[in-house]
Amino acid sequence: MKNFKLLTISLTFAALFLSVPLFSQVISIDRLFCENRENPLGIENINPKLTWVLSSDGRNKKQSAYQVQVSENPDNFTENLIWDSKKVKSGQSVHVAYQGDELNALDKYYWRVKVWDENNKSSGWSNTAFWQMGVLDRSDWKAKWIGVGYEEEQSRPGGLMRNEFNIDKKIRSATAIITSHGLYQAFLNGSKIGDAYLTPGWTSYNKRLQYQVYDVTGQLKPGKNAVGAILGDGWYRGPLTWGERKDLFGSELALLLQINVTYADGTTEVFSTNNQWKSAKSSILNSEIYNGETIDARKIKTGWNTSDYDAGEWVKVKEKQYGYDNLVATYNEPVRKQETFKPVKMLTTPEGDKVLDFGQNLVGFVEVEITGKAGDSLVLEHAEVLDKDGNFYTENLRAAKQKNVYILSGRDNEKFEPHFTWQGFRYVRLKGNVPGISADNFTAVALYSDMRKTGTFKTSDKLLNQLQHNIQWGQRGNFLDVPTDCPQRDERLGWTGDAQVFSKTAAFNMHVDNFFTKWMQDVAADQLQNGSVTHVVPNVLGPGGAGSAGWADVATIIPWDMYLLYGNTEILKNQYESMKGWVNYMNEQSKDYLWNSGFHYGDWLFYRPDDDNDGRAALTDKYLIAQCFFAHSTQLLVNTAEVLGKDEDVKKYSSLLHKIKEAFLKEYMTPNGRLVSSSQTAYVLALNFDMFPENLREQAAERLVNNIKSYGYHLTTGFLGTPYLCFVLSEFGYHDLAYTLLMQQTYPSWLYPVTAGATTIWERWDGRKPDGTFQTPGMNSFNHYAYGAIGDWMYRELAGINSSEKINEVGYKKIVLKPHLDNKYESEEVEKQNKNSVLDEVNASLETYYGTIVSHWEIDGERKTFDIKIPVNTTAEIHLPSNSIAKIKENNKPLSSSKDIKIVDEKPDEIVISVGSGHYNFSMN
């Protein structure tokens, strides 16, 4: 009887346990995004786009309807409702446009959503999120532009500005809106406003100057309040490019700041910059992006940003008439402090220098906590590498000093960090006369745009994992408000070619939708009237620096990438005229549709070291490259016109594309399909951009393969050929060769820098040569992300994570999982380099607007397992490498018995299936 009772209890619990999924399968709402950010401040779009991420433990879960409510009061969605979408029968959960009452400048709005699943079961209301509007009209600006009132020194010390105001009533909310000419850090009652750095960011200032919006409700107090700001040169007037060129956007620092206060009784008041503010020189003696910052703590005006401070000796500011026409809200994520590092060692070099090694090449600065006598100084010099003898190496920095100097005040426990500069470094050389210095006094802080981390990629191979690490840190170091080419030498510019080749890889590692949307607006703003696109954006090289194939094509490539990867049709709409302008420019430069004129960088920095500057040593004809990109950009314009419903443009540019390809064949290909340049890049670009007739594509791929083998299974490509190389090989059935190239450890290869100790991606394939010496120092960055574009192939081919490219399926609405589980070496030598190891596991994930995709495969002897997760409200097409359905099991059951899986196609080497959301585990023998 006792056993019977236990059995009854066990069965009861089992029944309860089995019933749990019935409840957990209800869809829940995890995250809410407005304009792709969580609770953003400063939205100028009067119909902001709303997105919600769904989750459920069940399979084949999808949204059948939604309801959005927007209110002015988070506690009352009834009386204060300004939009109720009602129940909308739609599966759309991404980029749903607000369609309610007119929105007011700087007001905060609260929203929530509920959805119904495929069985019409409701999720219930989500948590409440919010957004705050930005400045919507010039009349919303009450602040006046102000500049320092004192006579500036030639060394241009940082400027201080301050004012005081009174709060006499209880506050409901307060918002600060701030921008500047130069960089600023603002303070309210002694505390920094916000946690962003290098504000207002870098844009084409004279056309687009960003302002930032902050909630400062908690920083105000009853009675007297003090507000102030420190200003520095930054990109606005500091030296940029080469030859100490200054004042590229203007010569005077200026501040525009206002605080809008709403009181509990509903009344409002604005406190803003005007001619009553005062100014003084700061303790920052000078500050430049390339050269670093010098701070004299003896000159710190203690308490200058508090209400108790006596500013009697300060001088009145000067009002400026700069206007508001170029002011725009900040759309992308700001630069913030990120990871921190303590020194892994403090060493003394053979030359006697005291050097800190932080173990990671990073971008940011070093925080210092020290005690010493007044007038003692500490000098921090920054470098990426030590030379072959172990000495501090800065020759590759060119003219950039990368030096921060701190002069002590004599107080205990002084803390220093720079305000308006950053460095690219792993090593820091210490100079000065502060006694008792140890590694404990220093902390390195990474700085980069605060984008959400979205992708993970880990394998059974340590070198590949380090390569992925290097790709990610190359991106972190160079995605600092603009996609810079390098973070250390006297350059750090938004090179368009580097950005376009890396944009897809970037989107796997981080959420770059807003980052590129913002930057592409500057690409359009700086585009020349004839449609030519500049080499760098913001353009600090002048009108002569424009029109290079593969660089200027950023105008078409990145908008299209952002559409495919995020479903972002807005960027296509916003950039369409810019895209057309670039294609039209190329067409106007061509003769009989052949573009063989003008300056081009070509296949920049391919494996030959004598290819600096003018690229004369290039293996690949630059005009052949130009014609390929002419066709590619035209194709992307046709695609975009189709998405946007511009039928006339589809016809017009489709006709142009046909003529461009005909001109290519006539000029660059023999009747038998041989190209005039027999390089890897020539065949890669021509194949990837579909320049060959269909009947000649296979033999062109064979020529590419033979070329790679003739170089001992090495690549020879540069910036433009490298991103597509492995994709072309995989597409044409040479995946094992692509894998062999990836795993090659000798120069030139992706893993050669890894074996040499790299912690970021190098600018050159052999930045450090096998004998320990360096490549030419004039162009030898050790943090330069372009060659990290292989990450796109690693995610899409090894892990197999792809989005459908069909309209209404982009942005991972439909997922295509097609991993390569069997990766074999084409070269015994490369296999031996890797100690005959086999890649037997890849585990990757990607956070999308629909949720997180997981693709995890593993090989154990003859058994292969493929574990995947598909987000709610999406579908997936899965390619399983097997020649028989009978050999495949899902969750240890025959594949054919699963009601959740539809078999789409049976091929000799793979089974194609279709699934909805859920967790699936496949095993194949």
Structure description:
The structure is a single chain. The protein has 925 residues and is of the alpha+beta class. It folds into 5 domains: 2-53 and 61-133, Immunoglobulin-like (Sandwich); 141-332, Galactose-binding domain-like (Jelly Rolls); 336-449, Sandwich (Jelly Rolls), CATH 2.60.120.260; 455-798, Glycosyltransferase (Alpha/alpha barrel), CATH 1.50.10; 828-924, Maltose phosphorylase, domain 3 (Sandwich), CATH 2.60.420.10. The protein is built from 16 helices and 48 strands. Strands 14, 20, 21, 25, 26, 27, 28, 31, 32, 33 and 34 form an 11-stranded mixed beta sheet that branches. Helix 5 packs parallel to helix 7 and helix 6 (554-566) packs across helix 8 (622-644). The chain is globular and about 85 Å long. Mean pLDDT is 95; it is low at 1-23 and 611-617.
Could you name the key traits of this structure?
925 residues, alpha+beta, Immunoglobulin-like, Jelly Rolls, 5 domains, eleven-stranded mixed beta sheet, seven-stranded antiparallel beta sheet, 16 helices, 48 strands, 29% strand, globular, disordered N terminus
Gross geometry: globular
**Overall CATH architecture of the largest domain:** Alpha/alpha barrel
Which structural class do you get from the secondary structure elements? alpha+beta
- List the quaternary state of the chains: single chain
Tell me the distance between the termini: 46 Å
What's the helical proportion of residues? Answer: 10-25%
The number of helical runs is 16
**Strand count, sense and closure of the main sheet?**
11 strands, mixed
Residue windows where pLDDT falls under 50 for at least 5 positions: 1-23, 611-617
CATH topology of the largest domain: Glycosyltransferase
| Overall number of domains | 5
Cα-atom radius of gyration: 29 Å
What is the name of the CATH class of the largest domain? Answer: Mainly Alpha
Q: Strand tally, please?
A: 48
Domain Alpha-L-rhamnosidase concanavalin-like: 348-447
InterPro entries: 6-hairpin_glycosidase_sf, 6hp_glycosidase-like_sf, Alpha_rhamnosid, Bac_rhamnosid6H, Bac_rhamnosid_C, Bac_rhamnosid_N, Ig-like_fold, Rhamnosid_concanavalin
Catalytic activity: Hydrolysis of terminal non-reducing alpha-L-rhamnose residues in alpha-L-rhamnosides
Enzyme class: hydrolase
